[in-house]
Design goal:
The complex is a heterotrimer.
Chain A lengths: L2 H21 L3 H26 L3 H29 L15
Chain B lengths: L1 H21 L3 H21 L3 H26 L13 H21 L20 H11 L1 H22 L8
Chain C lengths: L2 H21 L6 H27 L8 E9 L6 E7 L1 H24 L6 H20 L3 H19 L6 H32 L4 H11 L5 H18 L7 H4 L5 H10 L4 H8 L1 H6 L1 H22 L5 H22 L2 H28 L12 H4 L1 H14 L6 H16 L4 H25 L6 H9 L34 H16 L11 H10 L11 H28 L3 H8 L1 H8 L4 H47 L7 H22 L2
Antiparallel strand pairs in C: 1-2
Helix pairs in contact in C: 1-2, 1-4, 2-3, 2-4, 3-4, 3-10, 3-15, 3-21, 4-5, 5-6, 6-8, 8-11, 8-13, 10-15, 11-14, 13-14, 13-19, 14-15, 14-18, 14-19, 15-17, 15-18, 15-21, 15-22, 17-19, 17-21, 18-19, 18-23, 19-23
Classes of the chains: A mainly alpha, B mainly alpha, C mainly alpha.
């Protein structure tokens, strides 16, 4: 398959992830959508890496995976902490920082 | 053959993605994401990135998703309310998503990258092997490799701090 | 030393006195301050005498000197110097001003003794003399305007001297505002002079004027009319006269100095100084003369019914200045200045005597309550009589010779000007009547309560302090008159001043007896030689005829007053009832105050209210509140973005990104 297909798929997955962030209210699901977007980026990276012919994109994708893992760890830790404080797990309820 | 696999994996990925967004129960969203990740691993294999595909399955779908499952089990999943407090959000979000997709596609496809229309150059059989990736990681990209290790350490410490039990104040 | 050097010293001493007293008022005891003030003016008078001697030592044609200290403003085609002009006219004015001022300072030394604002009084009084001297010594129109404005301020400060009396502060403001109207005229006239003649210096202006202007050309007429505006405001001629009676709110020495002898004569001096321009604009000169005539008669009639002693004397001042204005406008320059001098003597004396009587009456100023002071205060009565005789032009007194000289000149000029003689004599009759109305009311008869107290115990009466105009109670701290009142009989300084003035009032006219000597005319001739009108001289015979008519009128007036107020005291009441409309007109001062209120004050207030309601509130306020509203509403709109909803922020983020991507996509086509 041409590389373009992979790219188009990647952007479609990215858009779906963005849509999910905008629509869902549970922080867990929002983090999942964030994962979607990161993975879409990974797909694009690997596709380009294949297109260019070296493996640097793949290495980049690995590092992205590491970063995503760290972020998930911290994010889930936050969610657990919020749950422990008996606050509602709803990003619309958690809005003390406003102007 | 490759096309069939591609479309199957693509449909799986897309379906998983839509499942993540659409499912009411967070646990089902997690499961949908696992499906999505597996599909992506297949796509990586199609792109001659064997090690990345393996890492995707083992690290991402294996460790990270298990983490998610644990948290969802601990926290539980609530039904979200139907009322939308932000005016115009439900209307604008799909539009923006569509706009984003269209723009990104046009941006990439409309670029004058000639190589996009190809399958890519002929690669050696060892392309994407662990050996090749390992050599790159430890030779050329040593510093990002070490930096990401430190990042992992930080994240671990952060998670422990965030989720650890509060110490009782000594009376 | 040269005459101009003496003239600079004349200016310097009063200024020094004023500043010294002002800066050292805490350290200097009261009597020393009074002594400093009087000495400063005394020194100025001495320097004036020295300048006169110097001037007399020169040939008559050479008696004009200009001297300047430094450049005042020298840019953009202007070349104004801080310069003075010493010639017989300015020296004459300097001597009159400093001479009478020294005597009035001496009088104030005793009269204002118990006032809490003693230092302030002398500082202001010295400053006033400095300003007046600056006005008469100025060598160009700019410095004249400076002196003019300073004099206006000094008048305001001194009228409102008892500043805690609302009547006094109101009167001060009224005087100042009307003076400003005159200032406008003066400044516009100066602008026009500069535009037409290119200079402000007296010498240059008067030399160039006959060459530049044709007779009765509209520019020179405009200049003269604007100068008249200034002169009439300062000299309280119709219609800008309403401030002078109210200015009697100031202490009596102030009324004597400013509103009788010096400041109000500034207008007369102005017309005399700019006589070259008035010769070129005979229409304007005629306007001035007729205004002076009208003022003369109107003020004289009002003085017939005034019951406040000081205000009656104020209307008399207005009337006499009318004579002076007529004099200098129709060409009788030296006669007008002579009358200025004699008027300064006898009017200041009258005010001093009035001050003494008012002090004896515990600050009561209504003549209906005064009587019998002839027995109670002999010295004051004698000086008052001397002043009254001079004012009424009793034969032999100074007023006799000066007033009739103007009227004789009017006859000599002939033609239309004979009306001035006729109406001038009518005014003289009025003068005699109202002067002796005052004297016959106050001096003879049964002593009133205060006079009786003075006769019996020798103490001045003490009442609760009251505002004489409104009758309300007041105290005696700073801003009000002091607790003690000083009469001449008990104060040496007051007696000296009044005695000197009485002598001058009675015998000061002997320097200019027609056919015998004409010291003033000879002295002032070089100044006015460039006017064709100064060539007209009434013959000696005509002058003595005039004097004879004047004698008859003066004695007749005194006789009428005697009959009305001594022989038949009921007669004035009957006259008042029979001529009620006329009486009402006179008591309301010919309704000038009401006229000005309707014509000027109410429209001004209406314009102010309109400006406030529409312009201020709608335009200015609207602009500002409009800007405020714009900012506020913009803020309110923008605040939506700070909702606190994470998803909202994400939406905005994504929208921004999409927009940016669109822009880049489009721009890369």
């Amino acid at each position: 398959m041409n590389v373009e297909w992979y790219i188009v798929l990647s952007s479609l997955l990215f858009a779906v992830g963005a849509l999910g962030i905008l629509i869902r209210r549970s922080p867990i699901v929002i983090l999942l959508c964030l994962e979607l977007m990161l993975n879409a980026g990974n797909l694009a990276l690997v596709a380009f890496s294949r297109m260019v012919g070296n493996q640097q994109g793949q290495v980049f994708a690995l590092i992205v995976m590491v970063v995503a893992a760290c972020e998930v760890v911290v994010g889930l830790g936050l969610i657990v902490a919020i749950f422990r404080c008996r606050l509602p797990l709803d990003v619309d309820e958690l809005r003390e920082l406003r102007g | 053959m490759e096309a069939v696999l591609f479309f199957a994996a693509a449909i799986g990925a897309l379906g998983g993605a839509i499942g993540v967004v659409a499912m009411r129960n967070p646990l089902f969203s997690v499961l949908a994401l696992i499906v999505h990740l597996f599909s992506l691993a297949v796509l990586f294999l199609l792109l001659a990135a064997a090690f990345v595909a393996a890492a995707q399955v083992v690290v991402y779908a294996g460790a990270v998703m298990v983490l998610y499952v644990f948290v969802v089990a601990y926290v539980g999943g609530d039904e979200e309310s139907a009322w939308e407090p932000i005016p115009g959000q439900r209307l604008l979000a799909p539009l923006l998503g569509a706009a984003l997709f269209v723009e990104l596609s046009i941006a990439v496809l409309g670029s004058s990258l000639l190589a996009l229309g190809t399958n890519g150059p002929k690669v050696n059989p060892g392309f994407g092997d662990p050996a090749a990736i390992g050599r790159l990681l430890l030779e050329r990209f040593l510093i990002p490799f070490e930096a990401s290790s430190i990042l992992l350490l930080l994240a671990a410490v952060g998670a422990v701090v965030l989720a650890g039990r509060k110490r009782e104040e000594s009376a | 030393m040269s005459a101009t050097a003496w003239a600079w010293l004349v200016l310097f001493f009063p200024l020094l006195g004023s500043i010294a007293i002002a800066l050292g008022y805490r350290a200097i005891p009261a009597r020393v301050a009074g002594a400093i003030g009087t000495a400063a003016i005394g020194l100025a008078f001495a320097c004036g005498i020295a300048a006169l001697v110097n001037l007399l030592g020169e040939a008559p044609d050479a008696r004009h000197h200009a001297s300047s200290l430094w450049d005042y403003a020298s840019a953009a085609g202007l070349d104004i110097k801080l310069g003075i002009f010493v010639d017989p006219l300015s020296t004459f004015m300097v001597l009159v001003v400093t001479g009478v001022s020294t005597l009035i300072h001496l009088y104030s030394f005793g009269y204002m003794r118990s006032d809490e604002g003693y230092h302030r009084f002398f500082s202001y009084l010295n400053f006033f003399v400095f300003s007046m001297l600056l006005l008469v010594l100025a060598g160009n129109f700019v410095l004249l305007i400076v002196g003019w404005a300073f004099v206006g301020f000094a008048s305001y400060a001194l009228i409102s001297f008892w500043y805690r009396r609302t009547t006094a502060t109101g009167a001060g403001m009224k005087a100042f505002v009307i003076n400003v109207v005159g200032d406008i005229g003066l400044v516009l006239a100066a602008f026009l002079i500069f535009r037409e003649l290119g200079t402000f210096e007296y010498g240059a202006v008067f030399q160039r004027a006959p060459g530049v202007f044709h007779t009765n050309e509209w520019t020179v007429t405009a200049i003269c009319l604007l100068l008249l505006l200034g002169a009439f405001a300062k000299s309280a001629q119709l219609p800008l006269h309403t401030w002078l009676p109210d200015a009697m709110e100031g202490p009596t020495p102030v009324s004597a100095l400013i509103h009788a002898a010096t400041m109000v004569t500034a207008g007369v001096y102005l017309i005399a100084r700019t006589h070259v321009l008035f010769v070129l604009a005979p229409t304007a000169a005629d306007v001035a003369a007729f205004t002076g005539l009208a003022t003369l008669l109107v003020a004289g009639t009002i003085a017939l019914v005034m019951t406040d002693l000081k205000r009656a004397i104020a209307y008399s001042t207005m009337s006499q200045i009318g004579y002076m204005v007529v004099g200098v406008s129709i060409g009788a320059y030296s006669a007008g200045m002579f009358h200025l001098m004699t008027h300064a003597f006898f009017k200041a004396l009258l005010f001093m005597a009035a001050g003494s009587i008012i002090a004896a009456m515990a600050n009561e100023q209504n003549i209906d309550r005064m009587s019998g002071f002839g027995r109670a205060m002999r010295f004051t009565s004698a000086t008052m009589l001397a002043g009254g005789l001079a004012l009424a032009a009793f034969p032999g007194t100074s007023g006799f010779f000066s007033k009739d000289e103007i009227l004789a000149y009017a006859t000599a000029r002939g033609g239309m000007y004979e009306i001035f003689t006729v109406l001038g004599y009518a005014g003289a009759l009025l003068t005699a009547v109202y002067t002796f109305r005052l004297i016959f009311r106050i001096l003879p008869g049964q002593p009133c309560k205060e006079a009786r107290e003075l006769i019996d115990t020798g103490h001045v009466a003490h009442e609760a302090p009251r505002n004489p105009a409104s009758g309300e109670e007041e105290d005696t701290e700073v801003g009000f008159p002091g607790a003690e009142h000083h009469i001449a009989e008990q104060s040496l300084s007051m007696r000296i001043a009044m005695a000197v003035l009485a002598f001058l009032a009675l015998f000061g006219g002997l320097v200019q007896v027609p056919g015998v000597d004409d010291a003033i005319t000879k002295f002032l001739d070089p100044v006015f030689a460039n006017s064709p009108l100064s060539a007209i001289h009434p013959s000696v015979a005509a002058s003595w005829t005039g004097l004879a008519i004047g004698t008859a009128i003066s004695l007749g007036g005194i006789a009428i007053a005697y009959w009305l107020y001594v022989v038949q005291p009921a007669a004035p009441g009957i006259l008042q009832r029979r001529l009620r409309p006329l009486y009402t007109l006179l008591v309301n001062k010919w309704y000038f105050d009401e006229l000005i209120d309707v014509l000027v004050v109410r429209p001004a207030l209406a314009i102010g209210r309109f400006a406030n309601r529409t312009f201020e509130r709608v335009v200015v306020g609207g602009l500002i509140t409009g800007a405020e509203d714009v900012v506020g509403s913009t803020g309110r709109v923008v605040r939506f973005a700070q909702s606190g909803f994470v998803r909202g922020y994400a939406l905005l983020l994504l929208a921004g990104f999409a927009g940016l991507a669109l822009y880049f996509l489009l721009s890369s086509q």
